[in-house]
Amino acid sequence: MPELTPREVDIISNAVRAQGIIYSHLPDDLIDHLCCDVESLMHEGSTFTDAFAAVRRKMGSYRRLREIQEETLFAVDTKYRKMKTTMKISGIAGTILFGLASLFKIMHWPLAGVMMVLGAMTLTLAFMPSALMVLWKETRSKKRLFLFISTFLAALLTIGGILFKVQHWPGAGVIITLSGVVTIFLLMPAILHSALVSQERRAAPVVYIIGAIAIVLSFTGFFFKLMHWPLAGMLIVTGLLVLFLIAFPWYVITTMKNDTHVRPEFIFMVVGSLAVLLPLSLMNLNLQEYDKKIMNEMTEDLSVQRNPETTLQLSGAFEAVSEEKIDSKEGEKEVITK
Amino acid sequence: MKTKTYITGLITTTLVFLGATFKVMHWPGAGKLLTTGIIFLLFIFLPPALISGYKGEGRKESLSLYIVTYITCLVTFASMLFKIMHWPGAGILLIIAIPFPFVVFLPVYLYITGKNESHNIYNTVAVLFLLVVFSSLTALLTLNAS
Amino acid sequence: MISSELLKGSLRTIVLKLLKEEGPMHGYAITRRVEELTEGKIKLTYGALYPLLHKLESEKVLVTTSENYNNRIRISYSLTPEGHSLVAEKIKELREFIDSLHQIIDLKPGISHA
């Protein structure tokens, strides 16, 4: 009975793992079974390539492997399917609600606040718990669990923080601080670790580490900016610089130089970076103009203690008073000319 | 041969990164950099990249997804550009642009990838995540704009 | 080829009986042996076999061991004590079912009740 070489076993193993088959020892079951099928065909005279192709054809398609994993999970735990559906629906609904809410907010249309709260609640109370449970059932791996929990905790705090800030509810600062801490000290290490030990890692560890540091720097800077702490700008610029001029090109060069066609992942990364950078620069703009306005008001009258809201009210009143003065002056003129 | 497109992609991110930096530091030329970056994205990088990606995937049904992706990017980034440059029409463009990814792109994306056998569910998660992040950022924007 | 609908309910009993009589086996071996014993009439598919095996394992009827075999990991399934006692019960059930089926299938054309 011919035996597969290690390389041939790897090919089969990678094909199975690429489908995201991760439950319990199912990957091993399937890999071994596929290898045996291929070996028996080779025993009848085929080459490895032909045998493997024939086995794949008989199975139907690669997606069948995922279906088998689903059926296995469902056989072991009947609640799994319900939770997965909940996860899918709440994930999509929550995202859409949150997204539309920001449009409503910009347009000052009513219900914006309600939509945002609903969206945030759907995501944090329905999507995240169900997704966490689904992922736990699929992997039953403590290592990955840490990654999932950190991700959800960070996302929960971030969404909560943004919600509180936009709605001007108290406690926003605290939540945002917590989200920043969790993201930087829990989530980033978890992601980095997971990327480094992943079997699909294609670039040298250095690239990932540099990228992680860059992202941490940028995040920290952005966080400082939100809290109006100094040095924010420097952190952001340094972090982004390392990310876009060093880590990203390096990663692309090492992993994608042999591609015949552009990978969708690359398009996603480019578009994604812009989708994040552009609003960020717009935001900086507004914050700076806002701060400038405050500075102007404050230098005009140093004796009065003001907070930003009073300043705006006062400047509004100031304009109203000046209009009145102009009106009354014209009124006087009219009286005189009459 | 596809290296050219990868290079234009990298140039695009570099341009926009520089533009954002200049804007934050109040250095002159920020607007030009950002404009050039967005133009690069929409007219120099995306068309060849999307065509190549489509050919590489080899599934005829995905065509609508690639087209919709392009239109969504066009609408979204053009509106951001108008806003940054304070050009007229920014408001209207923004109204169309903000729900566009959710109302047009997302359904098409879910439909097409739902049919695709070898589609990775983690890709869907990444796309959803990006949409949430993007809308969160625009929501934060409204904090300052209002 | 026996249809999968007919097969579905009895698969559990088949697997349990096989593991009882022939000791620990891995998935491929189970498939192979069932095919041999039934002279090719019953071919177990991946989709039918592994969900069942994992379910039996979660019910503590089966237990698994892993070993290295030719550059990959081989998972072997064997009966637990609970599994052993379950086999007799399941076989009895299946036999009763088969006998009942016989009653119906071997029905001769009857004289209609006048």
Structural features:
heterotrimer; B: 146 residues; C: 114 residues; alpha+beta; Arc Repressor Mutant, subunit A; three-stranded antiparallel sheet; 5 helices; 3 strands; 58% helix
Overview of this structure, please?
- The complex is a heterotrimer of chains A (338), B (146) and C (114).
- With 338 residues, chain A is mainly alpha-helical.
- Chain A folds into three domains: 6-69; 77-259, no CATH class; 308-337.
- Helix content of chain A is 82%, strand content 0%.
- Chain A contains twelve helices and no strands.
- Chain A is globular and about 95 Å long.
- The relative contact order of chain A is 0.04.
- Residues 310-338 of chain A have low confidence and may be disordered.
- Chain B is mostly helical and 146 residues long.
- Chain B has one domain (3-120).
- Chain B is built from six helices and no strands.
- Chain B has helices at residues 3-25, 30-57, 63-84, 90-97, 100-115, 121-145.
- Chain C is α+β, with helices and mostly antiparallel strands and 114 residues long.
- Chain C is built from five helices and three strands.
- Chain C has helices spanning 4-8, 11-22, 27-37, 46-58, 81-105; strands spanning 25-26, 62-69, 72-79.
- The mean pLDDT of chain C is 87.
Summarize the structure.
Chain A has helices at 6-18, 26-43, 48-59, 63-76, 79-106, 112-139, 142-166, 172-197, 205-226, 232-256, 264-300, 308-337.
Q: How many separate domains make up the residues of chain C?
A: 1
Oligomer: heterotrimer
Q: Estimate percent helicity of chain C.
A: 55-70%
Order of helices and strands of chain C: HHEHHEEH
Largest interface: A-B, 67 and 74 residues
Cα radius of gyration of chain C in angstroms: 17 Å
Write the H/E string of chain B, N to C: HHHHHH
Identify the strand order in the major beta sheet of chain C.
1-3-2
Tell me the strand percentage band of chain C: 15-25%
Mean pLDDT metric of chain C: 87
- Main sheet characteristics of chain B: none
In which range does the helix fraction of chain B lie?
over 70%
Number of contiguous helices of chain B: 6
